[in-house]
Amino acid sequence: MSAVLDHHDAHGHDHDHDHHAPTGWRRWVFATNHKDIGTLYLLFSFTMLMVGGVLALGIRAELFQPGLQLVNPELFNQLTTMHGLIMVFGAIMPAFVGFANWMIPLQIGASDMAFARMNNLSFWLLIPAALMLVGSFFMPGGAPAAGWTLYAPLTLQMGPSMDAGIFAMHIMGASSIMGSINIIVTILNMRAPGMTLMKMSMFCWTWLITAYLLIAVMPVLAGAITMTLTDRHFGTSFFNPAGGGDPVMYQHIFWFFGHPEVYIMILPAFGIVSQVVPAFARKKLFGYASMVYATGSIAILSFVVWAHHMFTTGMPVTGQLFFMYSTMLIAVPTGVKIFNWIATMWKGEMTFETPMLWAVGFIFVFTMGGFTGLILSVAPIDIQMQDTYYVVAHFHYVLVAGSLFAMFAGIYYWLPKWTGVMYSETRGKIHFWWSMISFNVTFFPMHFLGLAGMPRRYADYPMQFADFNMIASIGAFGFGLAQVYFFIAVVLPAMQGKGEKASQKPWEAAEGLEWEVPSPAPFHTFENPPKLDATATKVIG
Fold first, then answer.
1. Which residues form the Cytochrome oxidase subunit I profile domain (predicted)?
2. Given CB 3.0 to 4.6 Å as the disulfide criterion, which of 10, 271, 330, 414 pairs with 203?
């Protein structure tokens, strides 16, 4: 038995209490430990981020100058479609599930996720789905080229890759639903004694609400793409006008999924920022309860704004007014969150380590994306802006500067806990400033392109748009390289255990149960649930 207790794991770390921790390839293939599955999710999503990024650089390389340089318009449409699908379903969503797997059990004092084997399955489902998505480029006729929203009637005219795409989306949706059930059951049933819901970290709260959103809307997407499939192969005419169908009905179904989906991709980011800002402002989060209620309000309101994506489809003016005002209303709880973060920083003893830089950077750029969203919510303006580069600028400010920047804040914040070593602060800051500047060089000019009337998803454009496109393309390549630098200079050394050893609590003002376990977090944590004091931040005894 002593041999089992004293064994070393794959990294040579000595974990006395890791009884029967599997080693080698079995540890990963048959992983049931929430930390290992979290790591798998994060590595998978980074891989997909790189794939989606290469497609984006293909788009920007083509748009570097007017005229057709590198790809024909058909391939250009495939690049834009697959870039969107891979980034949303392959990069952003799995990354946040990786964070959830790693942090939720640690933050609520649970020994693991509720359904460990289902957790393994929900990760491994992503691999064939991703291979099918990426592999669609090599199918007859190439990848789907209908835009990431997969609008009919284009989807009804695509080649066989469209079916592969639909199948892949179904599998990824199933994975999301299983992951969500797991998160909800874990949070509701496995909290440590004394950890009431209103004592949970904001990260757990945002994920609890996100998981309910996912369960509500993933079946809606499944319905929309299944109807597309039956239109393609089984003679139905849901979206085919020739048989009495309506292509605009597809948009209603898709955006009923698609708008809550936007919040699925941003709420966990809000949770991460709500953990990082108090730690480096050295103050408690301002207005915790109002943050929880604001998150819930955003989730509920996200179901009544879907048709603001459809102001140009010939909606009656009453409908336009309803969706315009409800969209403006959703800015209120979002504004509450931004106010609370700023109030948390107000008169705090702030220091700007890398996680805090990313969090403050997030607040700045996400707010800009929020304002352009507010502008687009005004129906008469949106009718001018719809399908121009203004919209591209807006949603990249929300999704890249929103989701991705918050993820980087979370990675730098928790990396010492995950790996047991401190990253290099200099490298982290280089990564931050390089990303921040190149991101804005890429996407800020797109506002002007859109205001000047440049439509999106076009492989060619008139001469008057040349300068801003050239600037945007240069910025895009810079931004892509910054993420390669991040992987080589920050992630790889941490995974290899290179660097100064991290203490149990590397950030002195950080709060939460995750800082009560050693760094790196041992294979088994909280086998006996911790008993919490009244504030649920310290372990008694």
1. 19-533
2. 271
pLDDT of amino acid 13:
46
Give the tens place of pLDDT for each residue, 31-58.
Answer: 999 999 999 999 999 999 999 999 999 9
CA distance 199 to 230: 48
Strand partners, 8: 14
| Preceding peptide of 522 cis, ω within 30° | no
Domain at 30-516, CATH from 1.20.210.10, 3.40.50.720, 3.30.565.10, 3.40.190.10: 1.20.210.10
pLDDT in tens, 411-466: 999 999 999 999 999 999 999 999 999 999 999 999 999 999 999 999 999 999 99
> Distance (Å, rounded) from C-alpha 151 to C-alpha 167?
16
The pLDDT value given to residue 532: 86
Annotated catalytic residues are: 83, 112, 148, 175-176, 259, 261, 263, 274, 308-309, 334, 337, 456
pTM: 0.94
Question: What CA–CA distance (Å, rounded) separates 376 from 169?
Answer: 28
Contact (CB, 8 A) for 334 and 362: no
Question: How do the domains of the chain map onto residue ranges?
Answer: 30-516
